[in-house]
Amino acid sequence: MPTDRATFGGGCFWCTEAAFKELDGVERVTSGYAGGDVADPTYEQVCRGNTGHAEVVQVEYDPDVITYPDLLQVFFTVHDPTQLNRQGPDVGTQYRSIVLYHDDEQREQVERFLVELSEEDAYDDDIVTEVEPLSKFYEAEQRHQDYYEKNPDDRYCSFYAEPKVKKVREKFGDRVTAEQ
Hints:
Helix content is about 35%, strand content about 20%. The protein has 6 helices and 8 strands, in the order βαβαβαβββαββαα. A 6-stranded mixed sheet has the order 7-6-1-3-2-8, with helices on one face. Strands 4-5 form a two-stranded antiparallel ribbon. Helix 3 (about 70-80) crosses helix 4. The radius of gyration is 15 Å and the shape is globular. It starts with a strand and ends in a 9-residue tail after the last helix.
C-alpha cells in the first residue's frame, strides 16, 4: 500500500489532527512543528512565538484511497484561512495558516486549489495561507499526539476540536472511516 505525506498548519494541532484522523485513507496523523528556524523546538518554545515554527500536522495517507486535493478540501473547510496568525482563541505566528508542500506536484496542486477558491469567492476575506516547501518536520512531544482522543473531556477540545470533527463527519461523510 503506497503512502504519501502532507503537512498542514491551521491553528492548534490538536484540532487539526482530530479532523484529519476521521478520514478513510489517512493512516497516521502526527502533530509537530515546521516552518521555522530553530532546530528541535519544544512546545514551550513554539508557544512563545519566537521560533518561526507553526503548529502543524503531518498526514500519512494512501493516495489510492484519498487524494492530496481531497486533503486540501478538508483542510480549507476545518479552519479559517483568512485569519492572519490566529485561529479561534489561539493568536500568534505559531497558529498561522500554512501548507508545507513535499514536492513540486503538491506545490502546483495547492497553488491551483487556492486560485480556484479565490475565483469562487469561497471566503468573504482574502486567503492568507502561506505556501512553503517543507524543509524539516519536528514531531511534537508525546503528550500532544492523539490529544483529542486521549482527552475527550478537555474543555478546549470540546469547544474547538469537536466542532471540526463534526464538520468533517457532516461534510465529508462519504470519506469518513467506518471505524468511527
